[in-house]
């Protein structure tokens, strides 16, 4: 589905991704782990650029509009599916079908706030679920997520992760969680200082592999993929 060969990315003179090669097949559930600043967001943004036509991206920056309602922020996920005139009328006076769809989706995410509530009045965890709902409302085959559950309690994070994995054939998700959530994925990629240092399948995942990956030593690539 996507092939990256010897990719290097930098911001001004800061190297963020170093000579990274990677293939991800359609249908894979891939977790990306790594310390803060290791390049996860940079890699995910690049993958989204490559897969834009078929992927929804739930980024850390969220890109929500504070002055708009919960409904309108989620509905933005469907803008490209409708004619501009439909979107315009719906912005002024929401149609009943998308309103009911968005409400049901929010309910699935335990986001039981009035659809008219403006974003600026929501908590951090609620905002994160609005961003997640907007990505899910895109109804794409691939989900790319940059720590999309980081502001949620562990139980809710696990429930929503399960829902996202079940709803998309391919998932590529950067996670805070080092161990528990990883058992839901087929394959785990680990970045350190912009380099791919871990690329293993679920059956090879052990606490020792994870501990070694996070140890201060510089390690060669560990891979069975
Ligand atoms: N806009 C930017 N301008 C300059 N440097 C940047 C910018 N964004 C990221 N970086 C740098 O690039 C490197 C990779 O950052 P990136 O955000 O991809 O890491 P990350 O693993 O996603 O971090 P975190 O877990 O904290 O979100 C870091 O050294 C970071 O400081």
TrEMBL record:
SUPFAM superfamilies (UniProt xref): P-loop containing nucleoside triphosphate hydrolases
Organism in which the protein naturally occurs: Shewanella woodyi (strain ATCC 51908 / MS32)
Keywords from the named record: ATP-binding, Nucleotide-binding
Xref: Pfam families: ABC_tran
ABC transporter domain boundaries: 2-218
Alphabetized GO MF terms: ATP binding; ATP hydrolysis activity; transmembrane transporter activity
SMART domains linked to this entry: AAA
One Gene Ontology cellular component annotation held by this UniProt entry: plasma membrane
Protein name listed in UniProt: ABC transporter related
InterPro entries from the UniProt entry: AAA+_ATPase (IPR003593), ABC_transporter-like_ATP-bd (IPR003439), ABC_transporter-like_CS (IPR017871), ABC_transpr_LolD-like (IPR015854), P-loop_NTPase (IPR027417)
């Amino acid at each position: 589905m996507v092939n990256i060969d010897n990719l290097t990315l930098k911001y001004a003179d800061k190297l963020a991704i170093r000579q990274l090669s990677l293939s991800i097949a359609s249908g894979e559930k891939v977790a990306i782990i790594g310390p803060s600043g290791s390049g996860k967001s940079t890699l995910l943004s690049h993958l989204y650029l490559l897969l834009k036509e078929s992927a929804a991206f739930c980024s850390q920056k969220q890109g929500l509009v504070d002055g708009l309602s919960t409904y309108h922020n989620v509905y933005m996920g469907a803008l490209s599916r409708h004619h501009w005139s439909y979107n315009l009328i719906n912005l002024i006076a929401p149609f009943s079908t998308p309103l009911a769809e968005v409400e049901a989706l929010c309910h699935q995410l335990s986001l039981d706030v009035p659809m008219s509530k403006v974003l600026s009045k929501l908590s951090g965890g609620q905002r994160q679920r609005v961003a997640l709902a907007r990505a899910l409302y895109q109804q794409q085959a691939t989900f790319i997520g940059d720590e999309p559950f980081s502001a949620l309690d562990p139980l809710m994070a696990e429930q929503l992760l399960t829902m996202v994995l079940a709803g998309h054939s391919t998932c590529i998700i950067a996670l805070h969680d080092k161990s528990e959530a990883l058992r839901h994925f087929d394959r785990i990629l680990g970045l350190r200082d912009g380099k791919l240092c871990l690329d293993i399948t679920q059956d090879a995942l052990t606490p020792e592999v994870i501990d070694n990956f996070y140890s201060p030593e510089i390690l060669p690539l560990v891979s069975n993929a």
